[in-house]
């Protein structure tokens, strides 16, 4: 009986040691395989760019300061208002300026009256036509005529005029000539005074106009200014030069960034720039507008100014921004889908499918854009790689499933 039992065990053992059939092996391998979706590296154009950070500024920033001293009578606008050039901002009290203007006008009218004029002519004035000078001239001419008549009488034989009367006529003529010259000099002095008083009137008029502070004129048509800060209130007493308002032209804005000097040859005016700010997920398009010709000796960087259109006022002056400056377009660059790359401890890997097995490849990556990442080293472009290679290691059996998502 024991002998029969031992024989049975031997038969079972021998049966377990028989080699597995090919069909059974394939079935077991299929059950152990991981389904993966295939992906192919692609070649295509890549836009090279430089990344920099900076601050947004208004292309035109203005501080409205008081041109004349006075007390603030009215304030018309406040922070956030968007205003066209010429819009009133604040009005100082006008009374003192109006009184000063009227005083200068009265003094000017007196000077005109002394000259015998109703208004001051433009350009040069012939002083001989002024009433006071003309009167002195006529008196001098009359003295000369009387002297000539006296001379004829004195030259008669016998003389018809005494020596004393003749000398009196000659002296009267000389005095009339002197009076004429004095009248001419006086008229010129009065004209100069009248012109000075007219200039004082214009100055007083300007000071009266300067009591109203307005948005300045813009350098481009259709420009507007936004009030960034209001520094005065009704009743404040301001002096000349005191800041009243801070204004900024919000469209376009100007992004100022600094780049290392080694990039000087890659930057050119007109290059396209994508600008992003933390307050928005959108990217805003700008253009390189100005490039500094000098390098800062302390930082070894140069400044680049980027014009960023802002018609909807979504961007704010003073905001921190990141710029992607597009420099050159490379036509043939190898790229893979970002989801095909795994990263651990700073090492980037993809899994290449070779003979239904996964093989790990370490790759060096470049810039990423639109879900594709540039492969600098590690692939030649002919490989088939696994998309979303979660759980794969070198040697893992894989089954390529078009449209499959892997584990």
Query: How do the strands of the widest beta sheet line up side by side?
Result: 2-11-14-13-12-15
Helix content: 25-40%
What's the pLDDT, averaged over the residues? Answer: 86
Return the structural class: alpha+beta
Rounded to the nearest angstrom, the radius of gyration is: 49 Å
Biggest beta sheet summary: 6 strands, antiparallel, barrel
Annotation, overall tally of beta strands: 21
Please report which band the strand proportion falls in: under 5%, 5-15%, 15-25%, 25-35%, 35-45% or over 45%. 25-35%
Q: What overall geometry do the principal axes of the alpha carbons give?
A: rod-shaped
Number of helices: 5
Tell me the series of helices and strands, N- to C-terminal. HHEEEEEEHHHEEEEEEEEEEEEEEE
Oligomer: single chain
Low-pLDDT stretches: 1-18
CA(first)-CA(last) distance: 55 Å
SSE blueprint:
Blueprint: H1 2-16, H2 22-32, E1 34-39, E2 42-58, E3 61-65, E4 70-75, E5 82-83, E6 88-92, H3 95-115, H4 131-155, H5 163-210, E7 212-214, E8 225-230, E9 237-238, E10 243-248, E11 253-260, E12 272-277, E13 284-291, E14 301-308, E15 320-337, E16 342-344, E17 347-354, E18 357-369, E19 372-377, E20 385-387, E21 398-400
Parallel strand pairs: 1-21
Antiparallel strand pairs: 1-20, 2-11, 2-15, 3-10, 4-6, 4-9, 5-8, 6-7, 8-10, 11-14, 12-13, 12-15, 13-14, 15-19, 16-17, 17-18, 18-19
Helix pairs in contact: 3-5, 4-5
Q: Could you please describe the fold and organization of this structure?
A:
It is a single chain. The chain has about 400 residues and is of the alpha+beta class. Among the domains are: about 50-60 and about 250-330, Elongation Factor Tu (Ef-tu), domain 3; about 60-90 and about 210-250, RNA polymerase II/Efflux pump adaptor protein, barrel-sandwich hybrid domain (OB fold (Dihydrolipoamide Acetyltransferase, E2P)); about 95-210. Helix content is about 30%, strand content about 35%. The chain is built from 5 helices and 21 strands. It has helices at about 1-15, 20-30, 95-115, 130-155, 165-210, and strands spanning about 35-40, 40-60, 60-65, 70-75, 80-85, 90, 210-215, 225-230, 235-240, 245-250, 255-260, 270-275, 285-290, 300-310, 320-335, 340-345, 345-355, 355-370, 370-375, 385, 400. The strands form 4 sheets. It has a 6-stranded antiparallel beta barrel with strand order 2-11-14-13-12-15. A 4-stranded antiparallel β-sheet has the order 3-10-8-5, with no helix packed on it. A 4-stranded antiparallel β-sheet has the order 7-6-4-9. Helix 3 packs antiparallel against helix 5 (about 165-210) and helix 4 packs antiparallel against helix 5. The longest helix is centred in the middle third of the chain and has 48 residues, at about 165-210. The relative contact order is 0.20. Residues about 1-20 have low confidence and may be disordered.
